Amino acid sequence: MASERYDHASVEKKWQERWAKEGIYRAQDSGKGKVYVLDMFPYPSGEGLHVGHPKGYIATDIYSRHMRMRGHNVLHPMGWDAFGLPAENYALQNKVHPRVAVERNIAYFKEQLAHIGFDYDWSREINTTDPAYYKWTQWIFLQLFKKGLAYMSDEPINWCPSCMTGLANEDLDGTACERCGTPVEKKKLPQWVLKITAYADRMLADLDALKWPEHIKEAQRNWIGRSEGLTFTSPVKDTSLTIDTFSAHFEAFFADTFVVIAPDHPLLPTLLEGLPNKEKILKEAQAMTDKRAAQGYDQIKEPEGIFTGRYTVDSVGNGELPIWIANYALADYGTGIVKCSAHDERDYAFAKKYNIPLKEVLEPVHVQKTGSSTFHEGEPFVEHHGVIVLLKKWDEDKYLGLRWKDAPDWGTLLTGAIEKGGGGEETARREIEEETGYTDIKSVRTLGTIHGKYYHVPKKQNRIGHTPVFVIELGSDKRVPLSQEEESKHKLVWLTPAELGSFLTPATHKYALRKLLGTAGAWTDFSNAILIEPAEFAGKVARDVREEVADYAVKKGFAKKTVTYKIKDWVFSRQRYWGEPIPIVHCPTDGPVAVPEDQLPVRLPEVEHYEPSGTGESPLANIAAWVNTTCPKCGGPAKRETNTMPQWAGSSWYYLRFMDPHNDHTLVGKDKDKYWAPVDVYVGGDHAVRHLIYARFWHKFLYDIGVVSTTEPFARLEFLGFILAEDGRKMSKRYGNVINPDDVVAQYGADAFRIYEMFMGPFENTVAWSTASIQGAARFVERIWKLAHKPLTEDPASAELESVLHQTAKKVGEDIEAFKFNTAVSQMMICLNAMEKAPALRVGQWKAFMRLLAPFAPHLAEELWAYFGEPFSIHTAAWPQYDPAKIVSNTVQVAVQVNGKTRASIELSPTAAEEEALSAARKAVEKWLTGPEKKAVYVPGRIVSFVI
RNA sequence: GCCGGGGUGGCGGAAUUGGUAGACGCACGGGACUCAAAAUCCCGCGAUCGCAAGGUCAUGAGAGUUCGAUUCUCUCCCCCGGCACCA
């Protein structure tokens, strides 16, 4: 055994066989301290594993081994997610039956996994394509059907012409099929749809308590896309119809001047009924829909519209509003019809293009964010009333600017404070005469009121200014002389609007100019806007009175409070062969009828051709013997549902089956669920939305019907970063840059491979594979092997080495629990360095180190454990306890700073008294203490800081 | 555009949550062993000035708080991820 080098191949084989034979990783269904550790189970593709796949499995392996050593009853299972398109496509390409292909692929995957030395409990292995498994997938579908949560729909669905199947919204990448990149089409097909929207609120609310990465929770919140608002109902003039419009920015509803409807809205033909040009409009609307589908919603830049000829009588009292068809309106969001106003960018642009009149009910509040007048955060605001004057020169398109003499970079318009009881126009006229001397006023008009938040430098206060804007034109240069004081304050300059644009400093003045030029656009910032209608809320910030406005609208009978979601019900039918048959029979008299539960599973029949038909019919439709059946209700002739379930069905509940994989009576026994649920740690990448949202949906449903006892399936989720190929690209057969773990294990050994993958960087980071860097892990393994064969001692331990070991025991344990494997490995390397350098190494210290190493390098640790005469197996041995007292050493290096700069380092006891520390520190930095000492800070064990 | 996460040597990355920035590893340079190479071991390794002792500058940029900032606050720039004419 005491060979020179570590012969990893034979050591690994030996222990892998022994572990399997003795079944040391088998989970018991009872006992204290259960821990359920789960990987996202793989899709057994024909290409086998590359080195990126096992990263998550190594992490759960280390975590579960560590928990087992801490005395927990650990469940760490593995299985296969083998239904779905990739398996079917692979089978089609290689001219084998998908079942055969899947079996072959699983065997290869399993062999590859075995080489890495995982602690899976293979007695619980499951496979989603096994009839004994999919029986329960079908059973769940039947329960959904019985509760009305699985229903048939005729709504057009996303159809991928390349994959020849319908897809759910979640299966899209923008407007293309996520799998093959082909743009999807809208296709009308009768579909099974699952009512995931019924669970949207609960899925949203329960996210908060989950120990999941923030970006995944956020992705789910975005996907659910909950939006609260009001729905207004108004009659359509000259018809018996009413329309509903949804608005989330309803505070400004008195500004609504027109209505838009989506070009593909189902109500459109009815709406146009009786109009002479109905057909023409419908044709144009269809063209708009087609154009939008061709280029994708996100490519629409230019608003386009068609007037329908209809008007709605606004329930709020805004009069008769014209109804337009607009290319930016979406039929499947909200009600598909929107009331529009000047306070929305798209609506504004649309109205401008088609000369639809607009009305404003929000006055902008400009917040000064640059320069010396930037408002001071947290300080109160003082109300200030004034005027802004755009003074137009006689005979010329130039306006008056003021350049301030005591602030040369400060350019403004003419302004003035409104004195008590004074009016705006009166103030404006007075200011013109006082500040400029001009007296010949030809005309006065107003551009409305604007508001500003800024810091008033002379008075040293935050202000919120309320200022009507006047445009005043002079008739001539008639002037009275200015006072000395006014003359000295600022210089008058006449500027063209373009010049004024760069001349003006305050945000409010710039906006006044844009108002004058008509380039101000829509004001859409409701948090910085003063409402002027309804009168009850005049003068209030729109966002601040949102709830009150909603209550007001409801009370007045204008609207109902409603909630809409971006998430759509889950399109659940696939027109492909390789999936779970949907357990439904279609009867001409009874409609869709559930297959009785005792007839489950509905087995996937053998077919000669399982190629997709492309007609929207599943390949199963051609098997008359299978399709034709009798109705379970009336006994008459009926046909089986021929669509299959999507790939995501089997994976939406598999974690439950691992708890009780062989149960024939129920999908999971109540006692088993009670004991094992929930999954304590779930590890995987990708699938931020789809799998994780589908599984949460099904789980909540199963909770509601009493099958499971928890409301969430995965208490904690650790998201892994991928491993890229050495060239920085994705690892793919296409690029020829795939690295097979078998080769790595053969060359460096499984343990070096495992350690390297964990040491590459933080678990959640995506890092490129480096053949050079794996050498470091291999050297680490070799050095441990070497040190094990050096003489050990029974002598008393050196305090220093003892401290490092206890630190290592603490850090490795804590880091494993926190999924910080990279720093755990680093600490073991520090420990090995210390052991190599130590004058003597005790047997007990070495054995403790072996146990810390065991989760990372299970083969090496097991071999050396046996070498030191310990009983099989190290993986069931107890995790080393650390002694906090031993971690603290007698002396520490304390830095000494003078005026914030580190000047020396002194050795002190971590508990040294302040006086002692200060005098030692003073001595060490004597030459820097060149002035009287103003202050001295002492943080025991860390730092001494002097200020002179 | 909105939201989430980031920006530290040649590279992957540490930093006890405000206390000596660069742990650990890779790469690189020098040395030992060797006939030689590999492997192994020892030393060095942010920039800059200096023979050295030592100094100065450095965690995307700029400000602020503090005795002290990679860490906290604000503004800006850049990268990654999610959502997106979503009313």
Characterization of this structure:
This protein has 948 residues and is of the alpha+beta class. Helices cover 32% and strands 22% of the residues. A 6-stranded mixed sheet has the order 22-19-24-23-18-26, with helices on both faces. Strands 2-1-33-34 form a 4-stranded parallel sheet, with helices on one face. Strands 15-16-14-17 form a 4-stranded mixed sheet, sandwiched between helices. A hairpin with a 3-residue loop joins strand 39 (935-939) and strand 40. Helix 21 (750-759) packs across helix 22, helix 23 packs antiparallel against helix 24 (821-837) and helix 23 (799-817) runs parallel beside helix 25 (843-853). The relative contact order is 0.12. The mean pLDDT is 89. It binds one RNA strand of 87 nucleotides through helix 7, strand 13, strand 17, helix 10 and strand 36.
Summed up:
This protein is α+β, with helices and mostly antiparallel strands and 948 residues long. It is 32% helix and 22% strand.
Proportion of β residues?
A: 15-25%
* Low-confidence regions: none
Count of helical segments?
28
* Shape descriptor: flat
Largest beta-sheet characterization? 6 strands, mixed
Mean pLDDT across all amino acids = 89
Strand order of the largest sheet: 22-19-24-23-18-26
Q: Which structural class fits the helix and strand makeup?
A: alpha+beta
